[in-house]
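Case study 2.
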Amino acid sequence: MTASAPRDDFLRTLAGRYDGQLVVSVYTTCFEWMAIRPDALNYVAVGAMGQAGSHALGLALGRPDQEVWVFDGDGSLLMNLGSLVTLAGAKPKNLTHFVFQNGSYEANGRAPLPVTHAIDFAAMARAAGIADAQQFSRPEALDLWLSSRARKAGPTLVDLRVLGSATSYPQRYDYIHSAQARDTFRNALKAIPQPGASHG
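Prediction:
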C-alpha cells in the first residue's frame, strides 16, 4: 500500500471529524495538528519519543467517558512497541491510536528508518491482541471509515501511509515543553464534568 497524500491532508480529514476528543500528539504531527485544529484539549506534553500511546492509555483509563486519539509517528512507535501489548491487555474502548507512517524520524532531521519497506503496523497490532486494526493510504478512505465508525469502538490502531506535509508549520518546542501547555490541558479536562461525579 503506497502513500498517496501529505500528512496534513490526513490531519485535515481528522479535524473534519473531530468531536471533542482528547488528542495526544507528538513532534512534527503535533505542530501540524496545533495549527490545523487548535484546542485546549490537545495534549502535547509527551516528551520522550515512543511515549504517546502510554500517555494516551493513562488518559483513556482515567477518563473512560472521553474519546482519546493518539497521533503517533512510525519512528516513535517503534521505540515502544510493547505499548501495543499493554493496550491490548487494557482494552480501552475509548482509545484510537493513529500511526502516521512516512519511513523517517522526521523530528530528528528526517533520518530514515532502518528498513527499506513499509511496516505493517496493523498486522503488529493484531498480533499483539488488538482486534481492530486498520490501514489507509488515502484521506478519502480514512474519512469514510470515520464516518461509519461508532464512538468507543476501540481499542483501535490505524496505520496511515503518508507523504511529508507540503506546508511548513511553526515548530513550537517552547510551547509543547512548557508549564502553560500542561496547565491549559489540565484545566480544560477538569472543566468537563465526569458522569456520576458529585457537584454539590
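The chain is about 40% helix and 15% strand.
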